[in-house]
Sequence to fold (224 residues):
Amino acid sequence: MRMRKKKNLDARLQNVQAILTVYQSENKNFSCTQPEQLLDLDGLFAKPQPVFIEIGCGKGGFARKFAALHPEINFLAIEKSANVLVEACEKALPLQLPNLRFLNAQAEYLSRIIPPHSVERIFLNFSCPFPKKSYASHRLTSARFLSVYQTILKPDGEIHQKTDNAMLFAFSLEQLSQNGFMLQNISLDLHHSAIDDNIPTEYEEKFAAMGLPIYYLEAKRAKT
Fold:
């Protein structure tokens, strides 16, 4: 079901433009109708630093926590829904984090927005699993998205994924291993693992409270 447009959305987006960049297409056939428009990442942030991105940041809880804990990293939080992203920006703006910025864009266009080989890490936190087999290409770890990530990641760049969905996790393991990534630090129950630097998302806290396992992986670009 499509989310109803929030009241005064355009005005609210204008109010957070200091930390928000908009690059959006309503084309539903996943064919980019806009010309390449690469971001100046050094100009976007207060100072040049390693760049991490989150694709599908939702209301921005993870992004805010990560940026606050890691001032040495520039964090770009990406969300395709302006309805959702405006709340993330409104919560982040008072924090005045110079290393946190937001981007309104669809993941399939990122190679036309983010400069080649400029990103050190991609976070995929609780992405939509698209359980129907016919929708497999919409999953953010499908081959067509991984080819986009290969373009924007640095040669030693990484993908970190968390999900509560076992089907999506198995799919991700298969797709990543078949499309130029080396798997590492795999956990079938993150909260009972030796991985100790986890920053929980809103969804993660909810699922963990229900006793559900959190699946986790790291994937590194394979050397060619």
